[in-house]
Amino acid sequence: xxxxxxxxxxxxxxxxxxxxxxxxxxxxxxxxxxxxxxxxxxxxxxxxxxxxxxxxxxxxxxxxxxxxxxxxxxxxxxxxxxxxxxxxxxxxxxxxxxxxxxxxxxxxxxxxxxxxxxxxxxxxxxxxxxxxxxxxxxxxxxxxxxxxxxxxxxxxxxxxxxxxxxxxxxxxxxx
Amino acid sequence: xxxxxxxxxxxxxxxxxxxxxxxxxxxxxxxxxxxxxxxxxxxxxxxxxxxxxxxxxxxxxxxxxxxxxxxxxxxxxxxxxxxxxxxxxxxxxxxxxxxxxxxxxxxxxxxxxxxxxxxxxxxxxxxxxxxxxxxxxxxxxxxxxxxxxxxxxxxxxxxxxxxxxxxxxxxxxxxxxxxxx
Lengths: 175, 181
Fold this sequence. Notes:
Chain A is built from seven helices and no strands. By secondary structure, chain A is an all-alpha fold.
């Protein structure tokens, strides 16, 4: 018998997989809305900590998905959440990859690309906003977000430097 | 020379993407490009850009889509599975090990503090990514408009993603189609 919460978890991420136009970064607000507000799986603070853990580990940024699964249903939850998140979108990608190459210059392909670009940018902006509201509770935290944003825009420093400095500042209890 | 159709095996795909999965923090795309184009020469620069643009516009984690497309290109279904599994296996093991470890030290003040610092900074990184992606949109007022509506709907109104996409995607594609030259 599969526990109810595991079924719930799989259903959530199977749907999110198909909705994640713009990648994992674009669905952070929706994951937050579902995990914190709708399902009450965790608090705001839990979500912020899981996001930080996913950023502190090597690998693609979709790892936040497996951490939500882990929080809800342990190791099994972590694995099935990732499989559910990658499954439907991968099948779709596999199916359309060939057609996409064939219709490289078709006007409808260009229209789809131009139409979806601003939607995905809006979603990723929303992710940054929701994360800032969820994670930042002090002026030091807002300052860290702001400084990282500015330096991220004007320099090509490796992102790990920002995270490492921020971790040290946080470890001293200043955030 | 760019690799020919049959020269890349499933095990090469598995281990190649295993390396990509372990090479970056908070996103691995720059490392993926370096390995696929410069080191292994599986794709040319242009071919990689084409794969990337498809991966970004389709739903799903972008790098997972890249692994599926490249795996398919050389070895079909087996190639996609090998590339995707290689990509996610080690990061998944590491992040779940980290989470388990974290559960034991979550009460330590310095650990919580460090993670608060990381999440504040990482939020800034995501905002920076979004603003960089937004730059090319400035030439089209309608694209800026769609971007703003998506942001307001998701960030401020906290509307369900499904509704926002169901309204905005057809609308935005229709505008793009109507304005095409």
